[in-house]
Amino acid sequence: MPGQASATSQAPSMASPEAQETGAAPAEGSQVDAGAEKTGVPASPHQRSWLVRHFSLLLRRDRQAQKAGQLFSGLLALNVVFLGGAFICSMIFNNVAITLGDVWILLAALKALSLLWLLYFAARTTRHPRALLYHDPHAGPIWVRGSLVLFGSCTICLNIFRVGYDVSHIHCKSQLELIFPVIEMIFIGVQTWVLWKHCKDCVQVQTNFTRCGLMLTLATDLLLWVLAVTNDSMHREIEAELNALMENFFGNDTSTCLCLNATVCEVFQKGYLMLYPFSTEYCLICCAVLFVMWKNVGRRLAAHTGAHPGTPPFRLHGAIFGPLLGLLALVAGVCVFVLFQIEASGPAIARQYFTLYYAFYIAVLPAMSLACLAGTAIHGLEERELDTLKNPTRSLDVVLLMGAALGQMGIAYFSIVAIVATRPHELLNSLILAYSLLLILQHIAQNLFIIEGLHRRPLWETASEDPAGKREAEPPRRGSLLELGQDLRRASLAYIHSYSHLNWKRRALKEISLFLILCNITLWMMPAFGIHPEFENGLEQEFYGYRTWFTIVNFGLPLGVFYRMHSVGGLVEVYLEA
């Protein structure tokens, strides 16, 4: 019928941003058909099918070339990681044939190649007129870029302390050892600047070369992380020097290389040990950002695609109990952190401070777990629909959240085995056992709450689409201003009714999200900037051995810090979408 035909032709097509990434080929085919409709001359079926086949073939070839480039660059990174991993494993198990200096030479070569590519990418590739036509609004949020700059600066300071320590021992060390920290500082500075500036870019030129450069840099950062996790030579050297100083104090001569100025060396030692976890954290963040940039190479987005059109600003919206409880946990955590740090600055840490530290966690973790379970139950009672559209950024957020949780959970499981197999009935060991079990439960509950919240459609989208959908279903008609005002009043009343109907659920979700945000900030601050009780209590180190437990802690703690940071970003998004 004519009315149905007109209504059908006027219905707008609601395409998702992911569906708009297919490029210009299908759009040109639709423009040919639209031009034929406007002129009134029917297009030839043979001509139309030939155009469709031609553009479909071009689109298929473009996708095949993109997948081939991704496969080749991925294989390049895999081979580089295997080569570097073989060097590092050989250094660990046979440090006579392959020494730490050999590993440093390999990493210096990789950093030099990555540095050359980063400079070429910033100076040539991004200057091309058609290089940066599209930007991914979801990539590189401000908390990721801020963490990149923070941990990058701390890693540069770490290398400065390392250079100072080597200079103070220059009478018994090779001068070539000073070159490697300097190369790393230059590499970190250039990489941080490039990632901060171009983390949102979807590069459209020199795609294969860009993919290979990104994968080479990612492999270099991954090998730096593996070396930082497994290499304890600097820690052993500092410990040996402290033991030699004690032997000299008691009149025994040693052959250990000693510092010329003990006070200056102590500053370098303390700074190096305190900043050491930041280097591993920086490598993990760089790997995540580089992977997102690699996925965005050759990706085409619609010009009007935004992160969240109409996303409300971050406001408390009357939330009271969540911020108050979160601030209480934050203040208590800061007090425990300061007391533990003051005690850790002495020669030994008393057991009561370990008891205070783990007691704080045992008090906070159950509250966080209960809040997460309550928030998950409220999500199930909500009337908001699940967002089933394909979203690569959300999928990556979920993978990073689940992967980063394995760090602290792995340390907790190793602690449980060590405690159960030795002395589980002592007070401190019982606290560590309870802390480990509660930490595992809290990670599981928080992951469920955040993932469930990320897969819900934001309330502003559902509220804005309901009246619009009703208007689109009706045929367009002309009316007076009075009728228009009545329509707007009905839409406003419907929105107010929906808002009041979901008010208690939305308020509960906002209270829970704010409480969890402040608690995660507290639990991020304590392992990121302080001494680690997991390594200082001596229980697991005695059970597993120094090197094994050193590797486990250095593997798990940076992932745990990254998990808390990533959880804060996810919880902020859950809060805004509630």
UniProtKB/TrEMBL annotation:
Membrane topology: Multi-pass membrane protein
Record-level Gene Ontology MF annotations: proton channel activity
Position of the signal peptide: none
Region annotated Disordered, chain positions: 1-44
Keywords from the named record: Cell membrane, Hydrogen ion transport, Ion channel, Ion transport, Membrane, Transmembrane, Transmembrane helix, Transport
Matching Pfam families: Otopetrin (PF03189)
Any one annotated GO CC term: plasma membrane
Start-end of Polar residues biased regions: 1-13
Subcellular location per the Swiss-Prot or TrEMBL entry: Cell membrane
Main location: membrane
Residues that span the membrane, as ranges: 71-97, 103-122, 142-163, 178-196, 274-294, 314-342, 354-378, 398-421, 512-532, 544-563
Family membership: Belongs to the otopetrin family.
Protein name (Swiss-Prot/TrEMBL): Otopetrin 3
Species in which this protein is naturally found: Neovison vison
